[in-house]
Each structure stands twice: as C-alpha cells, then as structure tokens.
Amino acid sequence: MMLEPRSRAHDSFCWALRTGQFCQARLLARVQEGMQGQPLQSGEVQALFTSFDINHDGVLQREEAMPLCREAVSLILGKMRHDLEEKKKSLSQKPRQSELQSVAQLGDVLLKLTDSAEERESLARAIFTKADSNHNGELDRAEFVRVLAQLGEGTLL
Asked: How confident is the model at residue 129 (pLDDT cuts 50, 70, 90)?
C-alpha cells in the first residue's frame, strides 16, 4: 500500500488516536476516503486492524472480519450508485443501445444487492473468502492490508 502525503483527515485521525477519541466508524470513513483517492496511512491501517481484532490475537477470525466485509459491501454499493449516476449523466441525447444496456445492467445489479440482505451477506462472505488467501479461516495483517488496497483500487470483486 503506497503512503501518500499527510492530509487534514490524517492529522485529525492522529489526534483522535493519540487522545483515544477514535472509533471504528471514523476509521471506516477513512477507508471510504481511500476509495476516493486519499489512501490510508500505515497508522490508520494498524488502528483499523486493531479495532476489529477483538480478542487481540493478531489475526482476524471470520467473526471478527465479517463486520468489515459487510462495510466493504456498503462501500462498494455506494460506489456503484455513484458510477450509475455518472453513467446516466454521460448519456448523450441519442444514446447507443450498448450505453443503455450498460446503465440498465448496473442498475439491475445494484437493485438486486440493495433489496436483498441475503445477497449482501453472501457478497460479504465472498469478500472474506477472497481476502483469506491462505484459506485458514482468518485474516492476518498482510491479507488485511491487501483487502483494503483492493477495496481502494476498486478491484476487490
């Protein structure tokens, strides 16, 4: 994961970390900012990992990682919504059939995932399975960093 120059968000995160005023919600908000081109700093990644490592054993078991996987699904759905809106805006006055199909397909997938808790949970399980590259049922720090990078790059699924 490439480190970027510090941002105002990073500075406020560091203050929150030093003073004990941070929470998972703020860390997850930074993950979303990472998806928008403001990559997480290594300290933020470490704090996020630690916040999910409930039993403090240095790895995330499936039960510990699933809230993160569910949040990843939410972030992916948000990006899909944004992409759908951008595609709709970019349609010309006389769109080609392929453009209309592309928008319709994205809309169909988004609708299916948004309406079905079962589909979202299935997607969260798939994210965990993909992230668990050594298939031992838990995520170590390297796997965790990799899944965050893939989420930020939009290559997780």
From this structure: very high
Query: Which sign does the torsion angle of CA 81, 86, 87, 91 carry?
Result: positive
As a whole number of angstroms, the distance between CA 39 and CA 32 comes to 9
- Cα-based angle 141, 143, 144 (whole degrees, multiple of 5): 60
What is the rounded CA–CA span in Å between residue 140 and residue 142? 6
Distance CA 71, CA 14 (A): 22
Identify whether the C-beta of residue 48 lies closer than 8 Å to the C-beta of residue 127: no
pTM: 0.68
C-alpha to C-alpha distance for 44 and 144, rounded to whole angstroms: 12
